[in-house]
């Protein structure tokens, strides 16, 4: 985790102190619990589902909450459609505590709380940009926040001490706090999270009626673009409904782009058609260039693909020999070939290191493949 502090016993000292009450023992709530318990923070778990609560406790995410608890911090990790209700209840029950929520939409619950006249002095909405396709306490992991942005939505009335508590929580979990307004946050996640979910789901939906032979041709590219299509429909109905306006704005613009490409391909020999397609691909190149990479750098890497036998220890040997060659692995993707006893390891390295890596690995007996499409 970032900015670590080590005690004499070798355990990093947490910025978060006292009891942390986590309401909602699903994926995010239980993951927060695991991370804080790893720092010896007292975590009191509460959940509307007794079974979910028992499961999270059994996995070590915390202890069951007690009526006598006096939490310094409350983290609300419940489905979007009940965030406002739970935040209101927690603020009234624990007026001295700082209350934050980790919902992926910030503006709708804030409006609901203001309309109810709730005192929001000690409430700070936040959102860790982290998660997995599968939910529930059984999927929780202490490290899912490491290196991820954690948006904190403060206003002019937020006490500095309360802000420090929420940002301290994010830092304890290895995340990077970023301050945004609720409006900025909701527009941003519409573009980088909510619409990509819909696009992945729509594309994967085309596979339902596809011939089996067609799907056997699927490579890593299509798997990458549809990975998040495995997400839970029930949760996404709530998220998309709560952030509908910004999502629709992006979808409308995307629909215009799709219509333009479709029209160009409908008449590929027409003047300007090929340029329209090329400009679409080039603009995508430009957009990818803007995505922060490793350590937040706006930097593209080059790739090589190595054939790896499907036997124990081969991937470790590959990494070891790359290290001997002085080549640092910036990123890695694995793809197994259907029916074959080998996999393809696509390794990203700094520009200029590809040739050296390929020649060095080939000299050591590795087979270099072309980039998968």
Give the secondary structure arrangement, pairings included.
Elements: E1 19-23, H1 27-37, E2 42-46, H2 50-58, E3 63-64, E4 73-76, H3 83-93, E5 98-101, H4 107-115, E6 123-128, E7 149-153, H5 160-172, E8 176-179, H6 182-205, H7 212-215, H8 220-226, H9 233-242, H10 244-266, H11 273-290, E9 302-309, H12 314-324, E10 331-336, E11 342-349, H13 354-363, E12 367-369
Parallel strand pairs: 1-2, 1-4, 2-3, 4-5, 5-6, 7-8
Antiparallel strand pairs: 6-7, 9-11, 9-12, 10-11
Helix pairs in contact: 3-4, 6-10, 10-11
List keywords for this structure.
about 375 residues, alpha/beta, Rossmann fold, 6-phosphogluconate dehydrogenase C-terminal fold, 3 domains, 4-stranded antiparallel β-sheet, about 45% helix, disordered N terminus
Folded structure, characterized:
There is one protein chain. The chain is α/β, with parallel strands linked by helices. Helix content is 43%, strand content 16%. The strands form two sheets. It has an eight-stranded mixed β-sheet, with helices on both faces. A four-stranded antiparallel β-sheet has the order 10-11-9-12, with helices on one face. Helix 3 crosses helix 4 (107-115) and helix 10 (244-266) packs antiparallel against helix 11. The longest helix is centred in the middle third of the chain and has 24 residues, at 182-205. The radius of gyration is 24 Å and the shape is globular. Mean pLDDT is 89; it is low at 1-10 and 294-298.
């Amino acid at each position: 985790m970032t900015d670590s502090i080590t005690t004499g016993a070798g355990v990093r000292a947490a910025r978060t102190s006292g009891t942390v009450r986590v309401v909602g023992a699903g994926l995010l709530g239980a993951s927060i619990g695991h991370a804080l318990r790893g720092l010896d923070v007292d975590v009191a778990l509460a959940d509307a589902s007794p079974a979910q609560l028992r499961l999270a406790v059994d996995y070590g995410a915390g202890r069951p909450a007690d009526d006598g608890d006096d939490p310094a911090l409350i983290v609300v990790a419940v489905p979007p459609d009940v965030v406002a209700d739970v935040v209101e209840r927690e603020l009234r029950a624990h007026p001295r505590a700082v209350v934050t929520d980790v919902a992926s939409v910030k503006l709708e619950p804030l409006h609901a709380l203001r309309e109810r006249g709730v005192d929001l002095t000690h409430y700070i909405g936040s959102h860790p940009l982290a998660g997995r396709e599968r939910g529930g306490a059984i999927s929780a992991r202490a490290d899912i926040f490491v290196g991820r942005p954690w948006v904190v939505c403060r206003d002019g009335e937020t006490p500095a001490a309360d802000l420090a508590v929420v940002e301290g929580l994010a830092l304890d979990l290895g995340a990077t706090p970023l301050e945004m307004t609720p409006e900025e946050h909701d527009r941003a996640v519409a573009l980088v999270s909510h619409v990509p979910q819909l696009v992945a789901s729509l594309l994967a939906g085309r596979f339902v009626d596809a011939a089996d032979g067609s799907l056997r041709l699927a490579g890593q590219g299509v798997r990458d673009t549809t990975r998040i299509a495995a997400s839970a429909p029930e949760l996404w109905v709530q998220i998309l409904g709560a952030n509908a306006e910004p999502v629709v704005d992006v979808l409308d613009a995307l629909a215009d782009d799709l219509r333009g490409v479709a029209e160009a391909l409908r008449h590929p020999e027409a003047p300007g058609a090929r340029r329209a397609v090329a400009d679409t691909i080039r603009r995508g190149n430009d957009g990818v260039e803007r995505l922060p990479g490793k350590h937040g750098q706006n930097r593209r890497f080059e790739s090589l693909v190595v054939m790896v036998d499907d036997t124990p220890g081969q991937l470790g040997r590959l990494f070891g020999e790359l290290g001997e060659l002085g080549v640092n692995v910036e990123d890695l993707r694995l793809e197994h070939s259907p029916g074959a006893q080998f996999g393809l390891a696509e390794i990203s390295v700094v520009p200029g290191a590809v040739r050296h890596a390929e020649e060095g690995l080939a000299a050591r007996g590795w087979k270099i493949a072309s980039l998968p499409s």
